[in-house]
């Protein structure tokens, strides 16, 4: 059973502001989906290793050589506000 | 001649024998877009300027291609059909775009999609829905619905899509075209805006199997910018067409033939099986016992990865930035929350919330870890079958294209339209959809062919032989 308050908490963790109407709708939607997902509980997975991805690749490194990269100005020009080559954000602490 | 209706290999033949110029081809597709796209709405952006001389001496000589709106093209807006990427112009090309440029493809436009590839109908787009070219009241499928619709609607020669749980194959099936999801790791994901990093693959959407193999040969291959890219040599996939399919062993999973499958889909698949039998393939029913858990597993794994990947859209480095009228928390948190509230649509919010929930403290073991374990079981099912069989066939989707709006208010029933395609992403195996018939309402049906990892050649070999003995791929839409 999912409560509206739980949904508000998840919304805050996801950094999404929701209206009361959205909270009510999402509570219902997520509960339906979680109910469907609960079918996985039928399976015994005690001795099964998890698959995080399918290729047998571990610790892929490249040669440690200097190569051209994007220029700082090309990247910074995409930001709404910058200051001395840094991203500028609203006040962080009161 | 309507060049827009041709395949790329047909155009290449004409170009080689100097029967047509690259400019004539480009203009023909441009005119088709002008005439057809107001109805289909498959494109979100198009380009009209074309200079033939830029492409002289290249393999593709400027043959146009359309690109799904989640693949980065340098200095061109790319939005994933989302409001949150408003104003974003990537400062670099995706690896697949670099390869297309080297081969001499010209990019004619970018195609509509479900926002961030979240959906199976292309209704979840900030730009509005795309229509199915075979019936404008139906969805084209999704999330690469724009790409499939413009190829099926002959307002493109071919296209690139991306597939996380069926997003190339299900729309290919709905629009009567050929769509391939390659083995995970075959095509570089560098520059593909991530949805679920352990499942996403870019792949070709084309009018026939030959074009599909041709396009995959161009985009596949190792890339050091993608650490999950497989370091293997890439064959010329069109060489697979020289082999017949005499004696090949094909498995049919019994779990895929369930209640809820449309009758016309079932009979088209049955007929396809007979055709393949006549061509020399042998069939046996097998079991993929964990099939019924695939959708649930997918919606844990995919949404968890999505919630993490989409955390980067925060109004700081690029894209939309918004502030609330009244402050609720600190100014920074206010900006994050308002930007993401205004920037994301309903389905994106729903999936990020689900993913955040399954990763959050106290729920991780019950959801995410369990999902990853069931993923192992699903993968093992396929490994076992491919020890004995060359390929697995099934329908691509349980139904033909559904009506616009039909499933929009019921997320779960929408998720279940990917029931046959999701397993291939979880197992990382290659899978292709190609036309195998039409319903009574003249809507295309897709046949899915799957094989073991990095055995795309086997899929193309079977698909080509099937296609050459049928004429489904030659039917054209009338708009």
Concise synopsis of the structure shown:
The complex is a heterodimer of chains A (94) and B (479). Chain A is mainly alpha-helical and 94 residues long.
Please give the structural blueprint.
The complex is a heterodimer of chains A (94) and B (479).
Chain A: H1 4-13, H2 20-37, H3 72-76, E1 82-83, E2 86-87
Antiparallel strand pairs in A: 1-2
Chain B: H1 8-16, H2 22-40, E1 43-46, E2 64-68, H3 95-103, E3 106-111, H4 145-152, E4 159-163, H5 169-175, E5 178-181, E6 201-206, H6 209-219, E7 249-253, H7 263-278, E8 282-286, H8 294-309, H9 331-343, H10 346-359, H11 365-388, E9 391-395, H12 411-415, H13 422-427, E10 431-438, E11 444-450, H14 456-468
Parallel strand pairs in B: 2-3, 2-4, 7-8, 7-9
Antiparallel strand pairs in B: 1-3, 4-6, 5-6, 5-10, 9-11, 10-11
Helix pairs in contact in B: 4-5, 8-10, 8-11
Fold and architecture overview:
- The complex is a heterodimer of chains A (94) and B (479).
- Chain A is mainly α and 94 residues long.
- The mean pLDDT of chain A is 92.
- Chain A is flat, with a radius of gyration of 23 Å.
- Chain A is 35% helix and 4% strand.
- Chain A has a domain of 42 residues: Glu-tRNAGln amidotransferase C subunit, N-terminal domain (Histone, subunit A, Orthogonal Bundle).
- Chain B is an alpha/beta fold.
- Chain B has a domain of 274 residues: Alpha-Beta Complex (Amidase signature (AS) enzymes).
- Chain B has 14 helices and eleven strands.
- An eleven-stranded mixed sheet of chain B has the order 1-3-2-4-6-5-10-11-9-7-8, sandwiched between helices.
- The chains are: A mainly alpha (94), B alpha/beta (479).
- Chains A and B meet through helix 1 and helix 2 of A and helix 8, helix 9, helix 10, helix 11 and helix 12 of B.
């Amino acid at each position: 059973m999912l409560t509206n308050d739980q949904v508000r908490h998840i919304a805050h963790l996801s950094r999404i502001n929701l209206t009361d109407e959205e909270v009510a709708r999402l509570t219902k939607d997520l509960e339906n989906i979680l109910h469907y997902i609960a079918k996985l509980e039928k399976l015994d997975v005690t001795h099964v290793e998890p698959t995080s991805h399918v290729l047998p690749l571990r610790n892929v490194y490249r040669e440690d050589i200097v190569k051209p990269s994007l220029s700082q100005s090309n990247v910074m020009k995409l930001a709404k506000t910058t200051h001395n080559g840094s991203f500028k954000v609203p006040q962080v602490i009161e | 001649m309507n060049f827009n209706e041709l395949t790329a290999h047909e155009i290449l033949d004409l170009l080689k024998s100097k029967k047509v110029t690259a400019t004539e081809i480009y203009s023909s597709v441009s005119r088709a877009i002008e005439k057809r796209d107001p109805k289909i709405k498959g494109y979100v952006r198009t380009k009209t300027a074309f200079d033939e001389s830029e492409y002289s001496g290249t393999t593709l000589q400027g043959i146009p291609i359309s690109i799904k709106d989640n693949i980065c093209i340098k200095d061109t807006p790319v939005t994933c059909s989302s409001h949150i990427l408003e104003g974003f112009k990537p400062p670099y090309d995706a690896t697949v775009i670099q390869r297309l440029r080297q081969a001499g493809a010209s990019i004619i436009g970018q195609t509509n999609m479900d926002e961030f590839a979240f959906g199976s109908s292309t209704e979840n787009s900030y730009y509005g829905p795309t229509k199915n070219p075979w019936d404008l009241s139906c969805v084209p499928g999704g999330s690469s619905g724009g790409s499939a619709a413009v190829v099926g609607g002959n307002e493109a020669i071919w296209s690139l899509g991306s597939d996380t749980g069926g997003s190339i194959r299900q729309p290919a099936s709905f629009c009567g075209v050929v769509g391939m999801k390659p083995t995970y790791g075959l095509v570089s994901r560098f520059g593909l805006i991530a949805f679920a990093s352990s499942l996403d693959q870019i792949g070709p959407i084309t009018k026939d199997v030959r074009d599909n193999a041709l396009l995959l040969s161009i985009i596949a291959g190792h890339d050091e910018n993608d650490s999950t890219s497989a370091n293997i040599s890439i064959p010329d996939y069109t060489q697979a067409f020289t082999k017949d399919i005499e004696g090949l062993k094909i498995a049919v999973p019994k779990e895929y033939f369930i209640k809820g499958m449309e009758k016309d889909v079932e009979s088209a698949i049955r007929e396809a099986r007979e055709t393949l039998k006549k061509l020399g393939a042998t069939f046996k029913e097998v079991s993929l016992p964990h099939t019924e858990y695939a959708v649930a597993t997918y919606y844990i794994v995919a949404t968890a990865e999505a919630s993490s990947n989409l955390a980067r859209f925060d109004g700081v480095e690029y894209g939309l930035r918004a502030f609330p009228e009244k402050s609720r928390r600190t100014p920074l948190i206010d900006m994050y929350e308002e930007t993401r509230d205004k920037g994301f649509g309903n389905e994106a919010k729903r999936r990020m919330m689900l993913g955040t929930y399954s990763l959050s403290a106290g729920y991780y073991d019950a959801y995410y870890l369990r999902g990853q374990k069931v993923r192992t079981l699903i993968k093992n099912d396929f490994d076992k079958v491919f020890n004995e069989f060359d390929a697995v066939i099934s329908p691509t989707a349980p139904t033909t294209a559904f009506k616009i709006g039909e499933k929009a208010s019921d997320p779960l029933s929408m998720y279940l339209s990917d029931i046959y395609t999701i397993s291939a992403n979880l197992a990382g195996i290659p899978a292709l959809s190609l036309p195998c018939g039409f319903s009574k309402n003249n809507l295309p049906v897709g046949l899915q062919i799957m094989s073991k990892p990095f055995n795309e050649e086997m899929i193309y070999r079977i698909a080509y032989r099937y296609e050459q003995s049928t004429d489904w791929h030659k039917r054209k839409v009338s708009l």
